[in-house]
Amino acid sequence: MIRQLGTHRGKQIIFGFDRHVLPDLDGYKDTLSRYGAPAPGVVFDELYYLTSAERTCRRVQHRPDRVGVLICSTGMGMSIAANKFRGIYAVRCLTVEDAQLARTINNANVLCLATRAGFELNQDIVAAFMTTPYEGRKLDKLEYIATMELEADPAPSLPRRGKIVSSPVKAA
User: Fold this and answer.
1) What's the pTM?
2) Is 72 a catalytic residue?
3) What are the structural domains, with CATH classification, of the chain?
4) Counting Cβ atoms within 10 Å, is residue 138 exposed (0-12), middle (13-18) or buried (19+)?
5) φ and ψ at 91, to 5 degrees?
6) Which residues of 72-84 are buried (b: 16+ CB within 10 A; e: fewer)?
7) pLDDT tens for residues 4-49?
8) CA dihedral 104, 131, 60, 1 (to 10 degrees)
9) Active-site entry in 57, 72, 93, 112
10) C-alpha distances in angstroms, 16 versus 55, 56, 58, 101, 110?
11) Banded pLDDT at 168 (limits 50, 70, 90)
């Protein structure tokens, strides 16, 4: 997937978030629908940033027709969690330039936003992320990063807030 050229426009957008998004939820859905078909990456009775990141990344993983958008208070925890999944290249963007560079240089497929940055700025960041094409810049470096990905020990599942259980998936 790291070799996929072009923009994210028209892809299915898996949208994960926590409770901090609720005041602007309809606005975010409207914004995302301008660029693709948004689909929830959450369970509404469990709006926890880690489970939202996991659900979203599992739905984006290995699917070049999908892109992820994750939003929590700071965007930091979401981006750390998201980058634990093979094939996920998540970036926390606080400016439009961050989003443009995340696409042109790093071919990111998951955008992480901070509600603290404000809805209006985040709309502009989403627009830049979704419409900026990847044209193959630094592909050799991205392929090197891809070789660093390991799945020997899958991360534990986190089905309920704060209660970690072993992952049912075992490494071969």
Assistant:
1) 0.84
2) yes
3) 12-165 (3.40.1400.10)
4) middle
5) -135, 135
6) bebbebbbebbbe
7) 788 999 999 999 999 999 999 999 999 999 999 999 988 888 888 9
8) -40
9) 72
10) 8, 6, 11, 22, 10
11) very low
